[in-house]
Amino acid sequence: MNEAITYGLLAFTSFFTLINPVGIMPVFMTITNQLEAKERKRTALRATFIAYCFLLFFAISGQSLFKFFGISIDSLRVVGGMIFFLVGFDMLQARLGSVKVTKDEIHEYANDVAITPLAIPIICGPGSIANAIILMDSASDDPFKVGTLFIAITAVLLTTCLSLLSAGPIMKVLGDTGNKLMLRLMGLIVMVMAVEFFFAGLGPLVKRFIIVE
Length: 213
Description:
- This protein is mostly helical and 213 residues long.
- It is globular, with a radius of gyration of 18 Å.
- 84% of the residues lie in helices and 0% in strands.
């Protein structure tokens, strides 16, 4: 039981760090700054729900899915690292700018951004997907660990949802300058994480090719 609790804490902290509920607030506000408060709330709820479903899906069937297509987690880390780096670079340059939409297009725009880029890859990114697959693989023989993994995912996504719902007032306090500063800072952190993901996946792949040859 103690082992399951330790495992659950590990799962929670790893998902919290990868998803970064506080860090995605400026990204969320920048992407949804054309939306009214009601539509922004709906977008936050929809995005976190979609991300939650995807994380559960990959936690449950990720290993089987990857084996079926012959994909390794290391390959996911490499590709995810490149995607994260590009997203982080845009954040660093404060290039996640507003998109002009008309009133008739607002509802459709909210649905679109809730799925991508908010749910995927900002909330449910390559790192969190790989984390879900790896943690489930190590917990597959212990039902208590599986349960704590699902609880950890649920807790982090609920925290993320609350973070997005409260992003408006917080960003108003920070102002435009604070928003851009936080966006650039998180962009730098995302780029550092991207490099870690890339080389964490590249190392094992290179070793595998060397051994094969």
